[in-house]
Specification:
Blueprint lengths: L9 H4 L3 H6 L2 H5 L8 E5 L7 H8 L4 E6 L2 H14 L5 E5 L11 E7 L8 H11 E12 L5 H13 L3 E4 L6 E7 L2
Parallel strand pairs: 1-2, 1-4, 2-3, 4-5
Antiparallel strand pairs: 5-7, 6-7
Bound molecules: S-adenosylmethionine.
S-adenosylmethionine binds next to strand 2.
């Protein structure tokens, strides 16, 4: 089910003004991320979404930004300092097959990252364990890399791991699902 990992320098290609027009972070996140929440950005890259999430959760909230690659986290940290939200973001370098975050969270974003993970079932289990009851996961994959059938198979495995499908938000050039922990 998994593909190859986006190289760290690829982070610069997927974080640019055109991307922000196609995927406006605040518009995508505003229905789900609110003041005071603890949220997790899985496969955060250089922080296209983590930094706007930090402003949405406000000074009383927290963002846990998780990535496999140290270089992504290094650039994210620099950008977070520049944006004045570094104190709300906790960076976490994980292993390819283990999330290793156990803090309870209210919301998870997994944007263009799950298809790169070697063991998707394990990831669903880890994310399910982190989420508080009634917490939600917005999961988004690129239509260019992830065929419809593969997305459907991964969605089935998410449901088998305990998630319920709540919605299929429309996000440009993407398959997406809003999953909840009952
Ligand atoms: C295509 S980028 C997307 C980055 C960001 N979410 C965005 O939408 O701009 C995929 C990211 O997932 C990370 N990634 C891939 N496999 C991972 C894994 N097993 N655990 C954590 N992060 C992973 C990569 O290092 C990369 O930063």
């Amino acid at each position: 089910m998994s593909g190859h990992v986006c190289p760290w320098w690829g982070g610069y290609f997927i974080d640019n003004p055109l991307r922000r027009l196609i995927h406006p972070p605040r518009r995508i996140l505003a229905p789900y991320v609110h003041s005071g929440m603890t949220v997790l950005d899985f496969g955060c890259g250089m922080g296209v979404f983590s930094i706007p999430m930090a402003s949405l959760v406000g000074p009383t909230g927290r963002v846990i930004a998780v990535d496999l690659q140290q270089e992504m986290l290094r650039v994210l940290a620099k950008r977070a300092r520049r944006a004045g939200v570094a104190d709300r973001i906790r960076l976490y370098q994980c292993e390819a097959d283990s999330l290793e975050v156990t803090d309870p969270v209210d919301f998870v974003l997994a944007f263009y990252s799950v298809h790169e993970v070697p063991n998707v079932r394990r990831l669903w289990a880890d994310l399910f364990a982190c989420l508080r009851p009634s917490g939600s996961l917005l999961w988004v994959e690129p239509i260019g890399h992830v065929p419809k059938r593969m997305f459907a198979e991964m969605l089935k495995s998410a449901e088998e791991s305990g998630f319920r499908l709540r919605d299929r938000p429309r996000i440009r050039l993407s398959h997406s699902a809003l999953l909840v922990k009952p």
